[in-house]
Batch of 4 targets.
Target 1
Amino acid sequence: MKLVALDTSTDFLSLAVTDGERVFTHHERVGQKHAETALPALSRLLEEAGLALSSLDAVVYGQGPGSFTGLRIGCGLAQGLAFSANLPLIGIPTLDAVAAQAGASGTVLVAMDARMGQVYAAVYQDGRCQGTIGLFSPEALPLPEDAFTLAGDAWQVHEALLTGRLAGLPFNRAEVLRPEAAAYLKLASNGHYPKRPAREAEVLYVRDKVALTASEQQARRT
């Protein structure tokens, strides 16, 4: 399939385009400038690939969880592209992409920093999510009973807490991983994620509350 994929769930902008054989990527830390940088970067990728947006089969995007603002920007961009070229959308959870990037068979625990002292996490078995993606404090993160690979970026942000809980457990730690658009292209091609009309685009927030109050911030500091 000819696809474009985008992820704006972290402070990176990740884009990828495939013509069915070759893959062209753009992965850059942009902070909060996703909206300003995404379309020019995507235009360059399409030109490099020799593709017009209208010639694609679908637009793939990271549904979340992740940055609240980033997810809204990504979903809006995906919808805009899909509407403009009359293309369907394929939404894929961000943790699914990280599990795929870990490249490990067997059990993978994906744990991504969710800020506010929490992590998004899910367990994957041979690439398939077991259950649902949840929001946890590092102390309450459910851990697999058998040997597993730890993937994501939570262990870097919450290293002391996670290392303490993981001491003595049979696990391997992957490099720091954040969702990359090229992984979405591979997942979208396996047929497990449905195509939907642009008007039905969904965002997977997981967390309803996106910020701490001033008193909660003070309590956390003390």
Note: The longest strand covers residues 107-115.
Target 2
Amino acid sequence: MSKLVACKACKKEIAKGVKKCPSCGKDQRNWLMRHKILSTIGFIFLISFVSILGSGGEETATVTNSDTEGAQTQTAAAPEKQETVYKIGDVLTIDQLEVTVSVFEELDTIGDPDFFGKKASDGGTFAAIQYTLKNVSDEPVGMFSYPTVSLLDEKGTEYSADIDASSSYAVETEIDNSKILSDLNPDISVTDTAVYEVSKEKFAQGEWFIQVGNEKIKLK
């Protein structure tokens, strides 16, 4: 036989475990049982609050270096990416093209100065290069998509090509078959030339490079 207990409201005896009193209808369950959802939310909040209090005493570790003026936080610097420097003859893939600087010459004169040739200015010298462009994509490439080609000293100073000297060098070498108005079709290669006039004394010192797009090729 079920154990009898008194109703919380009318005090009449009712069976233990019933939800409501048969006489007065009073709900016999406690607050937690009547509000299970709120009870669950409250329990979760309580657990979270206790966890936060428990971790409040922890400190984030930092690497410090003490000196005569006090402790200084040391920040580990990310290693710098080492720049790749190519050499003459290396094949560079730049966007849709393969670029190869095949020849470098230092010249005082180009061709016959009296007949469409070019002589270096006083104290100057010519740095002349020949390079090949090959379209390795599946569609034509226009000249405006070609990478820029310039001379670079070790300080990063950029030198533009001498147009007159470059034209004379192209005639003298007879290897220039570059396209000016036409697109370069897939799998087709052309050879171009460029000549840069610089100080002869300065060119004899330090390192010099050809920069193709963002890539560097060491000349000397």
Note: Residues 36-55 form the longest helix (20 residues).
Target 3
Amino acid sequence: MAHEETVYDALDHAHGGEGQWAFGTGFDEPLAGVDTTVPDGVDPAELGEYCLMLGDDALVLAQRLTEWVTASPELEEEVAVANVALDLLGQARLLLARAGSVGVLGRSRQRATDSIPDEDALAYFRAPGEFRSTALVAAPNGDFAQTIARLLVASTVRLAVFARLRESRDPVLAAIAGKGVHELAYHRDHAARWLLRLGDGTEESHLRAQRGVDAVWPLLADVFSPTEVERRLTADRVGVDPATTREEVQSVLTEVLGRATLRLPDWPADAPPRGRLGEHGPELTELLEGLQGLARRHPAATW
């Protein structure tokens, strides 16, 4: 009987029969064909730090969303949430690759092999204090209504930033933003439709939606607080000061909550951007244990 090639054989043959590292190799270079030259007058270390901020937000939120796989209220929604997470993982990969290309952490000092790609080293082998994500994306999911409220807020904030980043002097950031705005517009609209359905639905769904919104709103406290890196890169026409997005974000969220017959909570007072500076609560450590556990136990694994 003739040998029938399996999908695993095909994967192996596609790379010359050599074992591939299990957590990321075997894909095209994420920045292949893109001009990765750092713009004149821009500190590469600060550009890399900024890419970590944006990339870590995407990576951490994607991990939170995958917690709903097999647990969503509808099969169709399970697929939708997974697709949103995949979009964010794609953004994270590009942004972490950009951070690696300008020398952020080089190849992580915790790497076990030189074959580990930079973006994977940054995702799997950094400690919690090296992450630059906000509390908004790191907070536990809560119930489905709270997850939808968080997705609405996070995607609205991120879309406002990415829309401006399309004009960045850094060609990589501009390219990532150009693609990302379409994904983020879908994420925001998907969450908005769900919040309308829940808020203007049954008495129970309305109550849960309001509780979800009330739980998420305090997490906006540091979202509009820029770091010095963000301020300098904004002045260099490379990054975006999050404070410049406040009016747009508040307008969108106010309109959605009004249509969903939900009470708009008070906007929290601005707080220091602790997450952007590597200061996190135990929830991020717990999340990273799940994300990084397998890679750390088997750092040189191949398939």
Note: Residues 42-297 form a domain with the Ferritin fold (CATH 1.20.1260.10).
Target 4
Amino acid sequence: MTRGDPGPALVVCSGGLDSVTLAHRLSAEPGGVAALVTFDYGQRHRKEVDFAARCAKRLGVAHEVVDLTDVGRRIAGSALTDRTQVPDGHYSSRTMAVTVVPNRNPLMLSAAFALAGGQGLGRVAAAMHTGDHVIYPDCRPAFVDAFQAMEDTALDGVVAIRLETPFIHWSKTDIAAEAGRLGVPVAETWSCYKGEAVHCGRCGTCVERLEALHDAGVVDPTVYADRDFWRGEVARWKAGS
């Protein structure tokens, strides 16, 4: 590591638009990216792991897949890990609360910090953003600060690792615009929580994705089962907000 070079980062990459954009962004910055790490926790949309692998191959970096399926199958009540139906509608709707996987980010980030420490890396990067704050408590700035404080204590005198969340105060539209600026192949990212053959276009993450890419003026060649549902849903949400 040289002056002005923070050293390479380990990027937590789900294969979604946010984390893939983060990986592309950091790979173009000083320090770059050492590897991507993806977690298989038994999510119904685990096909996202394949999209993370594609990103790693595109960037020419290693891809680590950590198996948390035994933990995931024991977590009941989340639409992402059991048979609870994934709701359609706006991402900010309280109905999206059924997609909360309790303690997901603490589990994943703890594992990522362990991997980074073992590989001599001083940076772990994750792609939380403001759109996540409403539903997911472990995506909020307070969580990021508390997690860093915990790791500083846990690793005191052993190694120093910094959690980087450059999108923490960005909107989804900001991230979509960054994806366009960086030339991220958005069709090579997976967002849909339903995990079917193509993006459904109706679940909260699909609605958020379509709205953001549209508002950012980014061409989206992704195939959706329903490409137009988001327009009416966003209009209804804005009218009721």
Note: The mean pLDDT is 88.
